UniProtKB/TrEMBL annotation:
The keyword Transport applies. It comes from Sphingobium xenophagum. Its main location: membrane. The chain crosses the membrane at residues 12-29, 41-59, 79-101, 141-161. This is Cytochrome b561. Belongs to the cytochrome b561 family. It is a multi-pass membrane protein. Its cofactor is heme b. Keywords: Cell membrane, Electron transport, Heme, Iron, Membrane, Metal-binding, Transmembrane, Transmembrane helix, Transport. Pfam families: Ni_hydr_CYTB. It is found in: Cell membrane.
Length: 170
């Protein structure tokens, strides 16, 4: 059976975990205890996602995805490809917008308290900073909804249609 290679699978699952964590911490930060350093950890996870995305895109360009079954209707292939493309865009734009909006503030930016991460050259009041702040929240919620759809689609293939779509990623 055609399936994603080991590196692609490892990146998919490690990043899925990190992204879900980033979303839960981002959406939940107000409700979580103040002394948990929720936002510094959220930022560190997000920056990790950004770095891994660069590796993943290079790997993906060098290793095309395995073909989907010819029996799958075209609308479904189109929907899957559009969702995956959008996910790659979100994997870059979400952490980048977070990094931009954080760069105008005075709070330190570091990676899991291990080393400092440079701030981007932006200033309070820049249009880009406002756009990043608005976009970060809106895109985060859209992504969370699309991820639920993506998981639903994977489970539908595995348990209802019983085809090999899910096994290609396991
Ligand atoms: C996979 C990457 C990321 C995802 C999916 C993500 C998603 C989110 C979401 C959904 C929220 C809640 C929105 C709100 O209530 O305002 C949030 C908040 C936040 N994110 Fe991210 N984020 C990511 C990466 C980053 C990065 C890399 C940084 C900074 C370096 C960052 C900084 C922040 C900050 C400071 C907040 C709190 C905003 C507030 O004051 O409400 N995020 N994030
Ligand atoms: C934050 C969570 C997740 C993100 C961001 C994500 C992202 C992606 C992306 C970008 C692809 C396309 C890979 C490529 O062709 O390069 C993909 C494929 C896939 N994902 Fe996820 N994923 C997530 C979680 C999950 C979960 C929880 C499941 C299973 C329950 C899952 C099942 C699959 C499957 C089966 C494929 C292969 C689809 C195909 O062959 O066309 N994903 N995912």
């Amino acid at each position: 059976m055609d399936r994603y290679n080991g590196v692609a699978r490892a990146l998919h699952w490690a990043m899925a975990l990190l992204i879900i964590l980033a979303l839960v911490l981002g959406i939940g930060h107000d409700a979580l205890p103040k002394d948990w350093a929720v936002i510094p950890i959220h930022k560190s996870i997000g920056l990790t996602v950004l770095a891994l995305t660069l590796v993943r895109i290079i790997w993906r360009l060098a290793n095309p995805a395995p073909r989907l079954s010819a029996a799958m209707p075209n609308w479904e292939k189109g929907a899957a490809h559009a969702t995956h493309a959008l996910f790659y865009i979100f994997m870059i734009v979400l952490p980048l917008s977070g990094w931009i909006m954080t760069s105008e503030g005075t709070r330190p930016l570091n990676w899991f308290f291990l080393f400092d991460v440079p701030k981007l050259p932006v200033a309070k009041g820049d249009m880009l900073v406002d756009l990043a702040g608005e976009g970060h929240e809106v895109m985060g919620f859209i992504w969370a909804a699309l991820i639920l759809l993506h998981i639903g689609a994977a489970l539908r293939h595995h348990y209802l249609l019983k085809d090999n779509v899910m096994r290609r990623m396991l």
